[in-house]
Amino acid sequence: MHAVDLMPTVLDACGVTPPDTVDGVTQQRFDGATVRATFGDAAAPDPRSVQYFEVLGSRSIVADGWKATTDHVSKGVMDEEELLEGSRVFADDTWSLFRLADDFSEAHDLAAEHPDVLRELQELWTAEAERNHVFPIVDELIGRFAAIIPPPNAPGERVVYRREGGLVPDESVARFFGGFRITADVELPGDGVEGILCAIGDWTGGCAFFVRDGRLVFALNRAGDAASVTAAVALTAGRHTLSCVYAPPGDTGPTLTLLRDDEVLEHAVLPIPVPMVWQHGGTMLALGHDRGLPVSGVYEPPFAWTGTLHEVIIDTGATARLDAREIARAHLHSE
């Protein structure tokens, strides 16, 4: 089974026959097949005998109990580039061959023993890839991101979020890696106010903007590499705008500035930059609390905000950048 089998299975289970045309537009055929027969019979046969794969230049195909796969290592995933053995150039890729029924862990490469089978599978992979518009192949993560068709209702450069709206899906949150300003409009009734202003992701990848022990904090986690900035000055009661401003790597590396009512509280160079995406599996932006695992070990979810949170504004355009006066004030403060 593969992801392409989900839609045919859902339609089959619901008794829906997919139309040949929709609003006069001829529909593409499904590559997948229904697996409804497996619902009542664990020994039901596989719905298909062939499935190709291609992820960032890494290629593989399963057919009739055989699996052929390359040793290609893509560009842009730093841990893989550093740690994985294999080819970095398509022309140098080595194909391995496994018989899955006898070798489920793919421990015994049979390419040298069955070159004819391997050649047939390579040709089959090419045919499947051509039919599914895989070519030209790009093995760079950034290159793939550049080719992504943007969503029809992408978030703007300035978006206002309110706590009453609940969790915010990824597609409604702008990318942070190019620079951002998060501003929380809050009321602090007195001492002891703390909690999450907003958080996205967790300690496998995410960031959190919060108040702890009366001080403003920004925490960042990138695949387990953690960094945080804490204001040296405690917050005071009253209505305030609390902000964190991230600038991507420049001459001094990535920087993070904490502000209260546009007054710089802390400015620091981060040891790690904000990643292009927080988690490959997706996450959600939470307002006034955190969920699941924390971004930082200094708090425990939900760590709900105990003051009043009127709104959170996320700027990722020109307004996200500090102006010259704010930059000078931040550098003087850091000195």
Mean pLDDT: 92
- CATH class category name of the largest domain: Mainly Beta
Q: Report the biggest beta sheet as strand number plus sense, adding barrel if it closes.
A: 6 strands, antiparallel
Which sequence of strands runs across the widest sheet? 7-18-9-14-15-16
Indicate the percent of residues in helices: 10-25%
| Spatial extent as radius of gyration | 25 Å
Query: Judging by the overall fold, what is the CATH architecture of the largest domain?
Result: Sandwich
Helix/strand order: HEEEEEHEHHEEEEEEEEEEEEH
> What percentage of the residues does DSSP assign to strands (E)?
25-35%
Overall 3D form: elongated
Please state the structural category. alpha+beta
Q: What is the tally of beta strands? A: 18
In the predicted model, the low-confidence regions spanning at least 5 consecutive residues are none
Question: Total domains, how many?
Answer: 2
CATH topology of the largest domain: Jelly Rolls
Please give the alpha-carbon distance between the first and last residues.
Answer: 59 Å
Number of helices: 5
Written account of the structure:
The strands form four sheets. The chain has a six-stranded antiparallel β-sheet. It has a six-stranded antiparallel β-sheet with strand order 8-17-10-11-12-13, with no helix packed on it. A four-stranded antiparallel β-sheet has the order 3-4-5-6, with helices on one face. The longest helix has 17 residues, at 115-131. The termini are far apart. It has five helices and 18 strands. The chain folds into two domains: 3-147, Arylsulfatase, C-terminal domain; 158-334, Jelly Rolls (Sandwich), CATH 2.60.120.200. It is elongated, with a radius of gyration of 25 Å. Helices cover 15% and strands 32% of the residues. It is of the alpha+beta class and 335 residues long.
